[in-house]
Please model this.
Amino acid sequence: MRSGHILGQILKVRVRVHYTWLVALALITAIVVTQFPEVFALWRRIVFGLVTGSLLFAAVSLRQLAIVALAISRGVSVRRLTLFVFGGVFQSPPEFTRPVLERLIAVAGLATNLLMAGLFYGIYIGFVVAGSEVAAALTQWLGFIYFLLALFHFVPAFPLDGGRLLAAYLWTATGSYFRAIRITSWTGWAIGLIFVGGGILLLVLGQQWFIGLVMTFMGWGLASATGMSRRQVQFYESLQGVTARDIMSQESHFISPQVSLNELVHTIILVTGQRYFVVTDGAQWQGVLTLRRLKAVPRKKWDSTPIGEVMTPASQVRPVRVEQSAVSLLEQMDDSGIDEAPVMEADRVVGIISRDSLRQLARTRRELKI
Model:
């Protein structure tokens, strides 16, 4: 689920670029180098190819961010987005979306693809009229590639727009979000393998290098994306019905703000391996202390520095509630960029929950098929 490079955070969404983009950039560059007239020097054709690939990446990214913005504006929770060459993979648990919203997102994606392809062809015509041959050729290739992507999105395979649309209807028909995603993601995986097989046959038997490479690459990308979607939905499904109360740790994670960092390290951390503590004066909690904040203090100052001076104040901590679902609190952790959180009941901290415990529970439930 983490294959790729983190690009940054946009619209409070963590954006990751999948490694298939490197292959796409190389493939697009190779196509432009071989298809452009040889009157241009090789280095110029390579530059043209890199520019074409970069512009395609920018167009696909902007298109996908627009779709994410639409989803967020409609109340859909989106925390992570992985950019593939054909678009992006983002997925929300069923408690944060509805079939009608999924249909809206899919239709908007299909319409945006066609509009983008038409825009590139419109720009191409403008460059032709202006007599700019190089710019016209580049935009013609962009328009052609984007038109292929627009057609590709009609394939009923999640996470393509056609697959998202089919999943929305299956969700309505079966009443099960998870079943709908499983069906469409397995369909996408099978279609991806068919594309790969067809592309290889064209390469080996038909010597159709351009079409064969494109089909093989698109099939590989689709199979990778559907695998990611399937793992996400399995993770969400394995945590259904679990609340913070069920999984929180009630072991002794509480510590006084007067205790020195040196005493904490040598009497607790080095003995128990604990990394997260709730700071309390006995009457109410004051804040939390993480191993990261402790390590920021020079070791020579540990003996003279009390916990209360380096803790994160309670006013800056977003706790979870005992009745909160496991999926929603995981979304909350992603939103806050934390790996642990205190669990509150009324105004009292009753435990601590960690991202690792959620993952372990999900993995165990999947192994037991429960």
